[in-house]
Amino acid sequence: MNRPLLFLDVDGPLNPYAAQPERRPDGYVTLRVPLGDGTPGDDGDLSSRRRTLRVWLNPGHGPALLRLGYELCWATTWMAEANRWIAPTLGLPELPFVDFGDALFRERPDGVHWKTGPLVDYAGGRPFAWVDDEQSDPDHAYVTTHHEGPALLHHVNPRLGLRQIDFRTLTDFTLGLNGPEGPEPA
Ligand SMILES: [Mg+2]
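Above: the input record for the complex with magnesium ion. Below: its predicted structure, written as tokens.
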């Protein structure tokens, strides 16, 4: 069976960075990642190399993601660094990642997120779900126009991170593809 892709953003869905700063959400652990070496937030300033980035992660999320039946893929500014810093705490194996190259952080005049084009290209027509805290209407329009297969752009609140209801939505999407009635005719 050709499994759908699940594009995973880190900051927002897995790291609820916008939650109250002094109150780590239940079930999460704290990671302190040295800035520099290409981690997000590294501004190239020498002084930043002595600072750390606080990341909250829920070790239950890895197994829950693996159970969903998707092929997991990082879709994050962490890119390859997600395998080094994020995957072990979540209990995820090394995953492929989308290399955003020159598109990284590059704002588009049409309001489409800089990740959206590269993700659609990476999917190459395969069904995919994308969890992120930054999609907006232009991204839905872009995907509808440029992606032939089914797609789910699932927004996650960065104050809350992934919750049970999000996992249910992701499961429902796969059931729509592979359920008893099979995929919708093209
Ligand atoms: Mg994010």
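Notes for the reader.
The two ends are 18 Å apart (CA to CA).
Residues 164-178 form the longest helix (15 residues).
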